[in-house]
Design goal:
With about 280 residues, the chain is an alpha/beta fold. It has two domains: about 35-130 and about 225-270, D-Maltodextrin-Binding Protein, domain 2; about 135-215, Periplasmic binding protein-like II (D-Maltodextrin-Binding Protein, domain 2), CATH 3.40.190.10. It contains eleven helices and 14 strands. The strands form three sheets. Strands 1, 5, 6, 7, 8 and 14 form a six-stranded mixed sheet that branches. Strands 11-10-12-9-13 form a five-stranded mixed sheet. It starts with a helix and ends with a helix. Mean pLDDT is about 85; it is low at about 15-35.
């Protein structure tokens, strides 16, 4: 009887040992993604964006043949500086952070504002441009000269953006749009008195698309846009910051910025005024 009990116990111990050893073996063989694995091991810098935010990132043709825009050009310049091949990809904005956390790409270069909430999920590089909520009106409009003149006026904004919250501080008469371009196009028609949108988007429409609009006063807010990376990629963050510093120093950044906006969008409004 004692021998049978001993045999059963021995069998159980052996079984447990086998399970533990199997677990350890599987763990040791499981691929663990080290810092910057996608970039450093494959030689390709894959960066994500929505592809729906002209002029920052968008498809060059209606068929969506190629991603282009300010974000894309900055990403390519950074990749070149780091000795890597650029690979821009378009993904839905609502899942873009989740994709980064799952390491589907190395970084997000998609005009993402640096916020405390986002910092809990990702790390950011130094800002690669500065913008903010800007008031735009029709070029011939003389009744709106500052934010105080927005009271009671009809203001256009894009749906589900922070610009609506800003607009509601001045007026309850809000018209919502699906795109910034459509909203800005409505200014000369008189459907809306003003549009509040990203400063750089409006400046692009003025300088490159010849919209008959103008910006009013200084931005209502000032936001810094950063390149988002995985929380664990400290080495990649350092490399990106170094590359960003270099393309700013050698004039590459300013060349790209002037291509789209006829000005350096890394500078703040205060910087521009002091320069003038």
């Amino acid at each position: 009887m004692k021998k049978e009990v001993f045999a059963i116990r021995l069998a159980r111990i052996t079984f447990v040992c086998i399970l533990v050893l199997s677990f350890l073996a599987l763990t040791a063989c499981s691929p663990v993604k080290p810092e910057g694995q996608l970039t450093l091991q494959r030689g390709t810098f894959t960066f994500a964006m929505s592809g729906l935010y002209k002029p920052f990132n968008y498809h060059e043709t209606e068929k969506g043949s190629r991603l282009t825009g300010f974000d894309v050009d900055i990403g390519k310049a950074l990749a070149k500086e780091m000795g890597l091949r650029p690979n821009p990809v378009a993904v839905p904005w609502e899942t873009i952070i989740a994709g980064l956390q799952m390491r589907k790409y190395d970084a997000i270069i998609g005009s993402m504002g640096i916020t405390n909430k986002r910092k809990k999920a990702v790390n950011f590089t130094d800002p690669y441009y500065r913008s903010g909520a800007q008031i735009f009106v029709a070029k011939e409009n003389l009744s709106i000269r500052s934010a105080d003149d927005l009271k009671g006026k009809t203001i256009g904004v894009v749906k589900a953006t922070t610009f609506k919250d800003v607009a509601l501080e001045y007026s309850s008469d809000i018209v919502e749009y699906t795109s910034d371009i459509t909203a800005l196009q409505d200014l000369p028609t008189g459907r809306v008195d003003a549009v509040i949108t990203d400063r750089a988007v409006g400046l692009y429409a003025m300088s490159k698309m010849n919209f008959l609009i103008k910006d009013i006063d200084t931005p209502l807010t000032e936001d810094e846009m950063g390149i988002a990376i995985h929380k664990g990629d400290r080495e990649l963050r350092q490399k990106l910051n170094q590359a960003l510093e270099q393309i700013i120093k050698d004039g590459t950044y300013e060349k790209i910025s002037y291509r789209y906006f006829n000005r350096n969008i890394l500078r703040t409004t205060t910087d521009e005024n002091n320069k003038e």
